[in-house]
Description:
Helix content: 25-40%
Order of helices and strands: EHHEHEHEEHEHEEEEE
Number of domains: 1
CATH topology: Purple Acid Phosphatase, chain A, domain 2
CATH class: Alpha Beta
Structural class: alpha/beta
Largest sheet: 6 strands, mixed
Number of strands: 11
CATH superfamily: Metallo-dependent phosphatases
Strand order of the largest sheet: 4-5-6-7-9-8
Radius of gyration: 15 Å
Amino acid sequence: MKLFAISDIHGATKPIEAAAALIRAADGVVVSGDITRGKTRSEAEEVIACIEQYSTRILAVHGNWDRREVMTFLEEKGCSLHGTGRTLDGTGFFGLGGSSPTPIHTATEYAEEDIDGLLRAGYETVREAARTVLISHVPPRGVRDRSFLGLRGGSHSLKRFLETHPVSLCLCGHIHEAAGIERFRDTLVANAGSFKRGHYLTVELGPAMTVAAGRVAH
Length: 218
C-alpha cells in the first residue's frame, strides 16, 4: 500500500494541483489536519473536493485550526478517523484530530485526558490488525514537535500512549518547522510539515515500511 501523506494545508489548493501525479500514483491520501485557513466547513469542502479530483481514497482528521464543523464534514464524508479506526489490507488506521491545549487557544483543542480516551477508543477498533498506523494532527510530546521559538507543542498523552501500545507509524503535523522523521521507541513518528509550503510524505506499507519526505514546487 502506497500513501501520499500531508498536513497543514490551510486552504491552499495549488500544492494539491502540483502534486496531482503523486496523488494519482498512491493507493490513498492521508490528511493529518489543519485543512483550512478560515476554519470553516465550506473551505474544507473545497480542499477535499480538490483532492478528490485525483483520489477519492482519503483518510483524514481535523486539526486544531479547524472548527468542529470541519470534523463533522469529514465524518459525513466517511473519511474521518478521529476517535475511531479502519482496517485496510491488514493495516489498522486510527486517528486523533485537534491538538492538546495551546497558548493561543485555537479552534479545536482537547484536554490531555480526553486525548487519552480518544486514542484508546480508536485503537480498540483496530487492535487485532497485523500493524497499526496512527493519523494524528498533534505529534507526541518531545518528538518532532519543537517550534521555531524552541517550545514543545506535542501531546503528553500521545507520548504515553506510544510508550505502551504497539503502533508502527504515527503520521502527524501541527508544528510546521518540526517536519521530519524520527523513531520513538517502537514507533516511527513522521511529521509531514506544511503542505501549504509544498511538504509531503510518501509511505509504503509492505513487508518493510518506508517513509520519505518530499516537496512540490507550486
